[in-house]
Amino acid sequence: MEFVASWIKPKLEMGDICPIFRRQILIDKRVTKASLYITALGIYEAKLNGERISDYVLAPGWTEYQKRLQYQKYDITDMVMPENELTITVGKGWFRSPMPGWLESDDKKRRQEQPAGIIAEIHLEYEDGINEIIKTDECWEVAASAFQFSEIYDGESYDAGYQIKKWNPAHCFEWSKDILIPQEGEVIRQIGRVFAKEILITPANELVVDFGQEITGYVEFHVDAQAGDKIVIDHGEVLDKYGNFYNANYRSAKARIHYICRQGDQTWHPHHTFFGFRYIRLTEYPTEVKPEHFTAIVVCSELKKTGTIECGNNQINLLISNIDWAQKGNFLDVPTDCPQRDERLGWTGDAQVFIKAASYNYDVECFFTKWLRDLAAAQRANGAVGQVIPDYLPEEKESAAWGDAAVICPWQIYQTYGNKRILEEQFPSMKKWVDFITNTTTKDFLWIGGEHFGDWLGLDAPSGSYRGSSREDFIASAFYAYSTSILIKAGKIVGENVDGYIKLYENIVDTFRKTFPVYHTQTEHILAAWFGLAEDVQSTVDDLAVMINNDGCQIKTGFVGTPYILHVLSKYGYSRLAYTLLLRKEYPSWLYSVEKGATTIWEHWDGIMENGDFWSTDMNSFNHYAYGAAVDWLYEQAAGITHDEENPGFSRVRIEPKTDERMGWLGVSINTRNGIVSSKWNYLNHGIRYDIKTEVPAVIAINNQETEVGPGEYIFWSSKLLMKFETLWQQKAEAF
Q1: Where does the pLDDT of residue 463 fall: very low under 50, low under 70, confident under 90, or very high at 90 and above?
Q2: Which residues are paired to 236 by β-bridges?
Q3: Does the active-site annotation cover 343?
Q4: Phi first, then psi: what are they for 472, rounded to 5°?
Q5: CA distance 274 to 189
Q6: What one-character-per-residue DSSP string does 212-226 give?
Q7: Around Cβ 593, how many Cβ atoms within 10 Å?
Q8: pTM for this one?
Q9: Topology of 307-638 in CATH?
């Protein structure tokens, strides 16, 4: 659609106050169809005759705004009346907030100085066949709203007793319409509510509400107050070891609600911001506090649940729940690193390590298609990909394993959902990334000389470093090879000539093996094995297993090595060791945070240390999904549900469970594009029982015996003593 409307804004900037625009509309004929097309430079909330026109929150979402800005279309036919008033309030949102909080830059300054504007059209179709467009122009009015302040990091201030005294003409201004695109991503909605679990009086004598679960969203409260009473609410993820409210890890983000009451009963929640929190501190509150007066509203992109995992180990079940909550909390229009501190950015490295797990847990095809279009739009002229997308760090250098999201993410979306359109769209971007490495390295066929994050937060890091001890040139060169190999496969699928990249890949592998004949860390072993760079992969994994055991059966990996460690071990004969790592409760481990009461995934293995102290205030999120990538191992190895690259979208699967009696039982299901596939195994006194359901053709492999099956339900028993594979019962697909 092409907008005929004009961009409008307040003639004078209002600073922190959210402007409210209005248009009064008289209709003297019968309307058969009414549609509102709208977007904003900021976050908007539109109301017609005092009623919200949609449950879409934080519209229009977050994109690479300089090149892509979504607009929304709403059917308002049933809302129009003879006399109408359309109002649109605009907050700073991602568009004008001071993001990121820790860094000052020219780009950040530019964004903060952008206007608060809207563009909108109401398309009316009348019974007599006449059509009319009511558009934003100088006929609209604007005023200061009751939202005295609203932005992403610091929160929101609202005066419930405020009355608008004067409306002024809106001002038309120039802003590109070429960037406008229809809604592409999933709609952001309130998807659930978590009720207050407990009211606490802390040792510091502060009033704190515990919701029992960390969420992303905002708190809704009900209060019976006097006009002018003040409510001040602060947000936090954890309590300190003494039981006191703590949010120093939010860094400069104030994460505060400031509310001025009107007279009487009132219920309210923020409208133009969001928080990551489990606890709220009632810094000011005028009346008696009761749990039933507080509700945490969960806000995220509306995604369909596709994967489920349950098992006989309750702590693993809690870990799975934590991963699920971490994904919901950080899939708010953009795959972010965290939802609480002065960051909340779409880090490319986090996205690529978690995308497989994410795509099994939820249907994220649309979500990532939109984000990858932003990645391509933000890609720099030389092919480099920024550290975050949308690129709010344009002055910062690219990094291996982060920029490789340009290649890894579209390939995984294709593998999970089987739609090659994502490869057709993204292939030019994928190619530009590989070419960027080729053109900027200081040594042919390796990536040498860049600035990288390394194995970020690896536990083998030297003192004072965040980057792990794995060699950065090693990691960069390994991902150079990996991305080139994916580019070749993608190119063949979409019909591109990749002969030159095949030769390039051969040279990369050959040069890598000559340059890095010895591996020094867990992560180096993992990458060499998983990316097929080691000359003897089995020997490399054997050495890795020895290293892990010598380390006390502990993981030493960071963001780069962790997603693959369990897969590498299971694929090359060390499934029991993989289970040992997964089931470990002591630090460092996945279950350590569960033991500490986590309800989401932590950024650090020891975000809360064994003595109860915090890792630091500098960079310590308690809702960070990256290490939750381990969940894809439960789908693919523990439950054994995989497909090969020639059968994307799970059009044909292999089901080869790898069991461990310490789990008791495990049940996994994936709702794929081609049907539901589920795999369950259970340790019983007389053997292991396997229950398998597949709506797609499959190879079932148990105890080194394979059976090809069509869609149907299957039950197998495996004797502990004889380990003999027997089919006892089979039912045809018609039983579904």
Answers
A1: confident
A2: 279
A3: yes
A4: -65, -40
A5: 12
A6: EEEEEEEEEEEEEE-
A7: 25
A8: 0.96
A9: Glycosyltransferase (1.50.10)
Of 18, 681, 694, 570, give the one whose Cα is nearest residue 309. Answer: 681
Tokens representing 373?
């279009």
Which is nearest to 157 in space by CA: 146, 166, 168?
146
Instruction: Encode 246-271: b = buried (16+ Cβ within 10 Å), e = exposed.
Output: bbebbbebbbbbbbbbbeeebebbbb
Give the separation between CA 410 and CA 370, rounded to whole angstroms: 11
| Domain 648-735 homologous superfamily, CATH | Maltose phosphorylase, domain 3 (2.60.420.10)
CA 401 to chain centre: 17
Rounded CA-CA distance 657/684 in Å is 16
Exactly one of 45, 237, 603, 695 is catalytic; which is it?
603
What is the mean predicted confidence (pLDDT) over 213-240? Answer: 98
Sign of CA dihedral 558, 332, 476, 540: positive
Q: How confident is the model at residue 464 (pLDDT cuts 50, 70, 90)?
A: confident
The one catalytic residue among 64, 156, 343, 713: 343
Residue 658 and residue 648 in contact, taking contact as beta carbons nearer than 8 Å? no
How many Cα atoms sit within 13 Å of 495 on the Cβ side? 4
- How many other C-beta atoms can be found within 10 angstroms of the C-beta atom of residue 159? 16
Residue at token pair 């995220």: 300
Tell me, yes or no, if 695 is annotated catalytic: no
Report residue 133 as tokens: 């467009």
694 membership: H or E segment, kind and range: strand 687-694
Tell me which fold the domain 7-185 belongs to. Jelly Rolls (2.60.120)
Do the Cβ atoms of 344 and 299 come closer than 8 Å? Answer: no
